[in-house]
Automatic annotation (TrEMBL):
Domain NAD-dependent epimerase/dehydratase: 5-214
The name this protein goes by in its record: Nucleoside-diphosphate-sugar epimerase
A Pfam family hit: Epimerase
Gene3D superfamilies referenced in this protein's UniProt entry, alphabetically: NAD(P)-binding Rossmann-like Domain
Signal peptide coordinates: none
One GO CC term, this protein: cytoplasm
Superkingdom classification of source: Bacteria
Single Gene Ontology MF annotation: aldehyde dehydrogenase (NAD+) activity
Organism per entry: Chitinophaga eiseniae
């Protein structure tokens, strides 16, 4: 039973490929320049912005995982995401493949982020959130109206030893390693859930290989204990043997920095995730699979250890 990862080269795609070996060794990795994660992986070069290449990549697959991460740009997301999800849905329907969409929580805006469950309504408060809501709605409508076998596997922001697109790793880990102050956005004493990529990938694969999980939205496993930005910094400082000094960037400064820094520019509209409690609740997953997520402390320790091995 071939299981295919669309966008296999990113932080999530690599971890999903690793986790899939618990279920199958018939794994296809799709991307512009895919590289093997496991010895038996099939590599399939494709431009996933091209509809015909999406269809070729999906052909012969039983389960398709969509884990692609476009450049962090509202302009690029607006152009690329709705077209991609439609093409992937059509390809999965044509080739009778199940679809697992690895999603973020951007469709939840405002104070909805205080406690994010699967029943929290989609009310985006950012341009990126509007785009992700459109994508989710397209997928959910295809499940209801076209009989698509699909599920949404949703995560908060991510961290792990593959540091791409992780605010936590760049502003906290990288700064501490350089002997500088860790940086947090807006409010270091607000709760802020972040998912550990190997754990999120494991949950994604478990869902994909559970037939009765389809047709639903799932929050992926994250330690259920609330944790603040300050506590994240303390965990990394302890694991690294560094001072836990921190600097908090207020929204006004993030906006000012955004005039010269594209990432800060794109982050500004997402600060509602940092200026108040942001708690991601995976109780539904944990109860369905009788699963206990890795603790925040264990995840930080594993991440630091992995990065230390890479540096050797």
């Amino acid at each position: 039973m071939k299981q295919t990862i669309l966008g296999a080269g990113g932080a999530v795609g690599v971890e999903v490929a690793r986790a899939l070996t618990a279920c199958t060794h018939d794994i296809r990795l799709v991307g512009r320049n895919p590289q093997k994660v496991n010895t038996a992986d099939e590599l399939f070069k494709a431009d996933l912005t091209n509809r015909e290449e999406v269809f070729r990549a999906v052909a012969g697959s039983s389960i398709v995982y969509l884990t692609i991460g476009f450049e962090y740009s509202t302009r690029i997301w607006r152009r690329s995401w709705p077209a991609l999800i439609r093409n992937v849905i059509d390809a999965c329907l044509t080739h009778n493949a199940r679809l697992v969409f690895f999603d973020n929580a951007y469709a939840i805006g405002g104070n909805g982020v205080n406690h994010i469950t699967e029943t929290t309504p989609f009310r985006p408060s950012s341009q990126k959130g509007v785009i992700r809501t459109e994508v989710d709605d397209i997928l959910l409508q295809s499940i209801e109206q076209q009989g698509l076998q699909a599920l949404i596997a949703r995560s908060p922001d991510i961290f792990g030893d593959i540091k791409v697109n992780s605010v936590l790793m760049h502003l906290v880990y990288d700064n501490l390693v350089r002997g500088e102050k860790a940086v947090w956005l807006c409010n270091a004493d607000a709760v802020h859930s972040i998912g550990y990529t190997p754990e999120l990938a494991k949950g994604t694969v478990m869902l994909g290989n559970t037939p009765d999980a389809y047709g639903q939205l799932w929050n992926l496993p994250v330690d259920t204990r609330p944790i603040t930005g300050r506590e994240w910094i303390q965990l990394f400082a302890k694991a690294l043997g560094k001072n836990n000094a921190l600097e908090v960037l207020p929204a006004a400064l993030v906006k000012e920095l955004g005039t010269d820094n594209q990432i800060m520019h794109e982050l500004f509209e997402m600060l509602y995730q940092y200026d108040r409690d942001y708690y991601f609740d995976s109780t539904k997953f944990n109860q369905r699979f009788q699963y206990t997520p890795i603790t925040h402390a264990q995840a930080v320790q594993e991440t630091v250890a992995r990065l230390a091995r890479k540096a050797d």
